[in-house]
Fold this sequence. Notes:
Layout: H1 6-13, H2 25-37, H3 48-61, H4 76-86, H5 89-110, H6 119-129, H7 139-155, H8 159-165
Helix pairs in contact: 1-5, 2-4, 3-4, 4-7, 5-7
Amino acid sequence: MSKVSRRAALKALGASAALLPALSPDGLLAFARIQAGRTVPAPRLLSGSDFRTLEVLVEAIIPADERSPGAKEARVADYIDLLLSEGEQQTALQWMGGLAALDQRAESRFGASFARLDAPRIDQIMAEISRNELEPTTPLEQFFVMTKQATIRGYYSSEIGIHRELRYKGNTYLEEFVGCATEDGKDCPHCRQQK
Length: 195
């Protein structure tokens, strides 16, 4: 796909938000290689600045915590870039428009691109664009919803999301299912989830 102007991307954002399809088998293989290689990101579709904005945005949606790393380390921005490179041009334009609109909001509010903001300012913008998450009314709110959905899918498709966050151990035989016992302020002895 050729480079598009910021104006065309913003116009595309105004269209209804498109849901992303799942990665193709080749895309899933590429995502696995990206995670295993621990290489510097090399976006297939997004520009370097759009990719950095997306990395900060997905990390704001699923940040690192004491349980597991966040969306940036799980390479969720790479996952979304792969999805966009496999998808329809209109969908890619909507995403580019959303990233451009997010940067414009950050510039108008704080005089810097979204990727250059400190955590409190990122939180302020996130609060604004997620305010109407259940019924988004603006293109930027629609973009947030679309990004959140893709971030969750990408995170829980990653090695980090599956094994470190969910602690999935694979198909193993259980003599009995004891469930999770994180009640009454106690840690669960079975899944090690902490209360």
